[in-house]
Amino acid sequence: MSDVSTSDSLIAIQQLKSTISKQIIGQDVLVERMLIALLADGHILVEGAPGLAKTRAINALSKGIQADFHRVQFTPDLLPADLTGTEIYRPEQGSFEFQKGPLFHNLVLADEINRSPAKVQAALLEAMAERQITVGGETYKLPQLFLVMATQNPIEQEGTYPLPEAQLDRFLLHVKIDYPAPEHEKHILHLARNEAIQNGKPEQKPTLGISQESLFNARQEVLNIFMADNLEDYLLQIILASRNPAAYGEDLASWIQYGASPRASIALDRCARAKAWLNGKEYVGPEDIQELAFDVLRHRIILSYEAEAEGITSDYFIAQLIARIAVP
User: Fold this and answer.
1) Strands 173-176 and 69-73, how do they pair?
2) What is the pTM of this model?
3) 280 vs 202: which has the higher pLDDT
4) More confident residue, 319 or 87
5) What pLDDT, on a 0 to 100 scale, did the predictor assign at position 2?
């Protein structure tokens, strides 16, 4: 088994994590989950109040790697073509030419995705799943390095279009973030003031970030992280229990309407491996699976009316599953 602690890719990604964490104060979970999504080749849905550095976080990530970034503000009047692009007629050539939309960037921020109607959401989620778009009968491949970070504001629900559960399943992770701790907020004040001072000085030439080739090498290393057979069975047991939890308690059985799909098994496997690799470990431990289970499962299970009436949340249900399933 190779020693991942000496991997050049690991050192580069860990340095990137440290650099971003200095710019995104008090949101260590968000920073780690973004990197896990990048390493696991998936997309991330982030839910949190305005002003919690969601845009700043993915912007900082894009500057740390050799990739381009584009932010799209989702609004009720947005059209699918505003994302995918459209064919434009060129009279001088007498033909149509495809004008690429913002989805043809490496990193895309879909800000307040629930502000746009179903057609726009479907266009984005189809591109996420297929890694290609079709316009006018022509199919166009999206970049090999392609990550979408969508955000939702949990405070205001008026005028929003909630994502259907089947479409939520396309996201690798659903991360919930909260306000920073008081000591972190003090650091944020200092950081903002220093940045305001730097804005009045000449711009420094940006340094080149991690190459895309290094990222693809890192993904291969993540896939090669060792996971014991009994731990793989434990992972699957958590997923299967979300569908049929009666063996772990009648109360759990009455709380669930639909459990997680096989996509959840794949997502939890890849994310647990990515977390272990990111921490310099040579193997996946139970703690890696348990910690990522919340972000992988919370948007993939549908609770029953009885559970909602009792105030049971998806996170509480997942916590009960983890507490009742024996750890190998």
Assistant:
1) unpaired
2) 0.92
3) 280
4) 319
5) 43
**pLDDT for 22-62, tens place per residue?**
999 999 999 999 999 999 999 999 999 888 889 999 999 99
> Which superfamily, per CATH, for 225-324?
Magnesium chelatase subunit I, C-Terminal domain (1.10.8.80)
In angstroms, the CA 43 to CA 86 distance is 24
Compare 327 and 157 and report the one with higher pLDDT: 327
Q: Which helix (H) or strand (E) holds 101?
A: none
Rg of the chain over CA atoms, in angstroms? 21
Question: Span 255-283, mean pLDDT?
Answer: 96
CATH class of 4-193: alpha beta
Q: Are 225 and 273 in contact (CB under 8 A)?
A: yes
- Closest Cα to residue 50, out of 169, 137, 151? 151
- Angstrom distance (rounded) from CA 35 to CA 172: 12
Sign of CA dihedral 50, 51, 52, 57: positive
Q: Measured in whole angstroms, how far is the alpha carbon of residue 216 from the centre of its chain?
A: 17
The DSSP 8-state label assigned to residue 210 in this structure reads B
Distances (CA, A) of 279 to 13, 140, 190: 10, 37, 29
Answer whether 321's CB lies under 8 Å from 272's CB. no
Q: Which has the closest alpha carbon to 272: 319, 316, 239? A: 239
Q: Is 126 exposed, middle or buried (0-12, 13-18, 19+ CB in 10 A)?
A: middle
Instruction: For residue 32, report the phi and psi dihedrals to the nearest 5 degrees.
Output: -65, -40
**What is the per-residue pLDDT across 274-320, written as a single tens digit (0 to 9) for each?**
999 999 999 999 999 999 999 999 999 999 999 999 999 999 999 99
Q: How far apart are CA 41 and CA 180, in angstroms?
A: 28
**What is the rounded average pLDDT of the residues 97-126?**
91
**Strand pairing partners for 46?**
151, 175
Domain ranges of the chain: 4-193, 225-324
Backbone φ and ψ for 162, nearest 5 degrees, come out as -55, 140
The domains spanning 4-193 and 225-324 adopt the same CATH topology: no
Give which of 322, 194, 308 is closest to 248, Cα–Cα: 322
